[in-house]
Every structure is written in structure tokens, then in C-alpha cells.
Amino acid sequence: MTDETISAALDPAAPAADVIVPDTETADSAATTAAAPLTDNIHSQRWQSYLKDCRELVNLVEQLEVAGRIIKVTGLVMVATGIKLPIGSACYIPLQDGGRVEAEVVGFDGENLLLMPQSAVEGVVPGAKVFSLEIAETLPKPQFGRPPRRRAQDRARHFPVGDHLLGRVVDAAGNPLDGLGPISTEVTAPLGGRVINPLMRAPIETTLDVGVRAINAMLTVGRGQRLGLFAGSGVGKSVLLGMMARYTTADVIVVGLIGERGREVQEFIEQILGPEGLARSVVVAAPADVSALMRLQGASYATAIAEKFRQQGKNVLLIMDSLTRYAMAQREIALAIGEPPATKGYPPSVFAKLPALVERTGNGARGEGSITAFYTVLTEGDDQQDPIADSARAILDGHIVLNRTLAESGHYPAIDIEQSISRAMHNITSSQHQQQARLLKQLYSRFLRSQDLIAVGAYQAGSDPMLDLAIQKRDAINQFLQQDIHECADMQASLDLLANVVS
């Protein structure tokens, strides 16, 4: 039977003369067998066309978004109702001019959410809608193991991290500030890092050369250690940080400028880091004129970038200036949402945030890299008993104190070796090194305590052999502790000079 015969048989409008009707049973069975597959193909084509139309209609339907609305704006806090989001979630409020204000959930009061905006709230009207920025939770797949987004932090906003950030300057939201084009978002991570089991951390076993003679010899730093740089304003902490950023032997440098003057950002990049230093650095800038939420986010973002490099097995130097501004930003938020102050105006949440941020740095698990962190701590009126300074001193692995009296006398870097200490030094240095550092510290302290007697001529030589030696070594000790900003003193040179001074 030909194709024309089959088409004519299936078409009821075809003329009877064109239809050939077979008169044998064999022909009847053959016609039935040939018509069955053709009928199935027609039904299949009709269903495929129908499903295609359905898919097109589904694609035209917009996703259903659950929205709340703003019912109150007071100071730094916005109150939203009609939407349920966990604390720490990100959301946004569209404005009438086409822009939007992003905010974060920092608390709740009954069914109402307390939102802290990331920018100015100009343009927000009563009843403005609130939409979530949270990433939709994906279902787990057996072949891929555990679900990729199990924690609330993992379902929150992700920010760019990784090698493509090297040499770039970004703000607390990951947006470029250097005008070098957009940041690649292929590798991202949430702001909240995973807690490392303390028993899984690698111990501090190797020294880190920071290029500053007084620190290398007297306050030896270990790779993965966390130290605080305690200083008042105008004592030279930024210059000392810049020296360590240029001379420290690290694979990657992450700089977090949190709550400082905007002028310092450009100065730190151009004058302190320079082109060579910036090539292996990532700078996160959240200056004082941004919101308190962005200052908090900037510190967490800088830490998240350092954590990513540590996972890659790299040795990271994290410099954060300053930890005090981070605490002040948390104080602004906590007081705005009604948390009562506890110690000198600081709410309890401030002292819970500090260790949570600091403990994310340090050595990773065995086989991973390390994060050696330097945090600057501002002491109001050079008061070392400031609540933030006292809390930071307790959670850090050492502290370097800068003395204003030394700075005023032209002694730079103005490191007070009497009040400074490195808690990991005894584990990573030899006994001979420790004895030499202890002897120099004793001579330095003995001379300072008797300086007034020596100045007025009341001290007679020979009364105290230790003081006699201190007077003899005074110039050599001062020369040893001072260092020019453009001078790099490596570890071995620092130890050799220390041995010559105390010999």
C-alpha cells in the first residue's frame, strides 16, 4: 500500500475514486498494522504541542513574592510587619524613584521585624513594601551528600571571595571602589564562617617575620597568632601597620579599614601598600561615614575573604583597623533596638561579637593555611583599662602597646616593650633568644625607673650593677628599638643585633 493510499484512507474528505479498497484478508491486516504507528505519532505530536504551550504560559507567570510593609522608622531602626524572616537575613525596600534601600534583620518585637538599613533611609514612605533577599533553600540530592545550604547564614546573601579580588579595593558589600571594573562573582561565600573545632586547629609552631626589629626580637609573632595593637589617636599605629603590611612574609594580605577616616583609605593604598603590596592584597573599606551595619559587615567580609584564602592553603596576613570601631558600630545597633547598656555604655552583645569575630582567624585545620591577624584597638585617653581594650586583651594572643610619651620624644615605632607581650613567643623561640629578650627588657625597665635620679645626678655609679649596665647600654638599646619607616629588618638580622646589644 502506498503513502497516497494511506493518506486517502485516513482523510474522510478524499474522493471515493482515489481510495483503493483491498479485497483480501492479508491486505486488511497490513493496512491495520501500518495505520497504528501513524495514529500514535499524531497523538504524541498533539501532546507535545500542548505541553509546549503550557510551558510558555508558565514562563509568563511572575514568581509569587511575599512582601511586608514598613510601619515605623525611628532613628536608625525601621519596623516592618507582614513578613517573617530570621535574624541576620537581608531584605530591601523599593523606593518610588526606582532605587532601593537594603537592610538587615537585627531583631523582632512580637510579629514585627526590626530592620537596620545599610544606607540612608531618605525616600522610604509609610507602608513601603519589604522584600526578602534570602536565597531559596534547595532540596538535598543523595548523590551530592549533605545539603549545600543547611545554615541560615548559607541561605543569606553571598559576597565575592577568591583570587579575583587580589589587587582590588571594595566596599563592605563587595562593590568595587577602584574603578577597575566589576568584581567576578563566580566564587562567593556568606559573611558568617563556620566554627572550627578547637581540637582540629593546627598549633602555632613557626615564627613570622614582620620586618620590624622590635617585634621580631622582643615580641616574636607566630604564624596564625592574633595580636592587638593598642594605641591612642596620633601615636603611629597606621604607620606601624603599613610597615608590617609591606615587610611581612605572607602569601596574601587582607586589609579591613573599618570606621576610620576616608582619607586614610587612599593614603594606605598609595603610600603604605604601594603597587607591589597592593598586587597581593585585598582592601575592604568601610569608612566612618557609612552606616553602622556596613561597618559591621565590612569586618565580617574581610574575615570571610581571609578564610577563603586559608582554605586554599595560603598564609594570610589580616590587618583590621580598628576593632574598636567595630565594637562601636555594634553598640549603635544594639542601643537603637533597645538593648540596655552594661559597661560604660556598651551592651552585652558587643562583648559577645568580639570573640566571635576574632576566633574566626588563626590557624585552620591541619593541612590548611593560616590567618595571622593584627587588630588595632583605640584606647580613649590612652586608658589601657577601657572596656573594649580590656576585653580585646583577654581574647587575643598578645598585645603591642604604643606609648604616647615615646612618640612625643621622637621614638618610632613607639612600642612600649614593658607593657607589650606575645603569648606564643615561648613556644616558637629558643631559650637563648628568650634569655636575651628578657635581659634587654630588664635593662630597659631598670633605666626608665631610675631616669629621674640619673637626670638630677643623685645616682652614684657602682651602687647597682644592673643599673650601671643599663646606663652603659642605653644608647644601643634605644637605637635597637627604633626603626625608620622605609627600613626592613628581617628576623635573622634582628636576632643578631639583639645578641650584640645584650652581650
UniProtKB/TrEMBL annotation:
Tell me what reaction this enzyme catalyses: ATP + H2O + cellular proteinSide 1 = ADP + phosphate + cellular proteinSide 2
Compartments (UniProt record): Cytoplasm
Q: Which SUPFAM superfamilies match?
A: P-loop containing nucleoside triphosphate hydrolases
EC number(s) per UniProt? 7.1.2.2
Q: What class of enzyme is it?
A: translocase
Family from the record = Belongs to the ATPase alpha/beta chains family.
Tell me yes or no: is Nucleotide-binding among this UniProt entry's keywords.
yes
Which ranges carry the AAA+ ATPase domain?
223-406
Name of the protein this chain belongs to: Flagellum-specific ATP synthase
As recorded in Swiss-Prot or TrEMBL, the protein's gene is named fliI
What are the entry keywords?
ATP synthesis, ATP-binding, Bacterial flagellum biogenesis, Bacterial flagellum protein export, Cell projection, Cilium, Cytoplasm, Flagellum, Hydrogen ion transport, Ion transport, Nucleotide-binding, Protein transport, Translocase, Transport
Concerning CDD domains, the annotation shows: ATP-synt_flagellum-secretory_path_III_N (cd18117), ATPase_flagellum-secretory_path_III (cd01136)
Give the SMART domains listed for this entry: AAA (SM00382)
Q: Which InterPro entries match?
A: AAA+_ATPase (IPR003593), ATPase_a/bsu_AS (IPR020003), ATPase_alpha/beta_chains (IPR050053), ATPase_F1/V1/A1_a/bsu_nucl-bd (IPR000194), ATPase_T3SS_FliI/YscN (IPR005714), FliI_clade1 (IPR020005), P-loop_NTPase (IPR027417), T3SS_ATPase_C (IPR040627)
